[in-house]
Each structure stands twice: as structure tokens, then as C-alpha cells.
Write a structure and sequence with these properties.
The chain has one domain. Helix content is 85%, strand content 0%. It has 4 helices and no strands. It is globular, with a radius of gyration of 14 Å.
């Protein structure tokens, strides 16, 4: 069961992990809040989640390209 959870967490862009680290709370709690808010707000937080995932991927790409240039 932990293997499935690890695969899902890696493929979920790391947004909840990032937010949990920044706010100092568990990423599982952030995921739970996203699920609750999505049901209450009829799906609109999914757009925020996808925008955050896009931004985090761009940041990761820029960090990798900078470190590649300095190597």
C-alpha cells in the first residue's frame, strides 16, 4: 500500500508537499484540505492546484538549467 501512495505522491507534482513544507504542516493535511475545498467550491481549486504545479515545474527546470550552466 505504501508503494501506491509513493507513486501517487511523486506523480502529483509535489504541490501539497511544497505547500506543507512552507506552512509547516503535514502534506497529507494539505491534500485533505484541497479535497474538501474542491468539493465545497465545485472544483475551482483544481485550477489553482494545476497553476501551482506548472509554476513549481518551471522553477525546477530553471534551477536545473542554472546548475547545469555553473557545472
Amino acid at each position: 500500500m505504501n508503494g501506491v501512495k509513493d507513486i501517487l505522491e511523486r506523480s502529483a507534482f509535489g504541490v501539497c508537499n511544497y505547500l506543507g513544507d512552507k506552512m509547516g504542516i503535514a502534506s497529507s493535511r494539505v491534500r485533505l484540505y484541497f479535497i474538501y475545498i474542491t468539493f465545497v467550491a465545485l472544483g475551482s481549486p483544481i485550477l489553482i492546484y494545476l497553476a501551482a504545479a506548472f509554476w513549481l515545474n518551471i522553477r525546477r527546470y530553471l534551477k536545473q538549467s542554472r546548475s547545469f550552466l555553473w557545472d
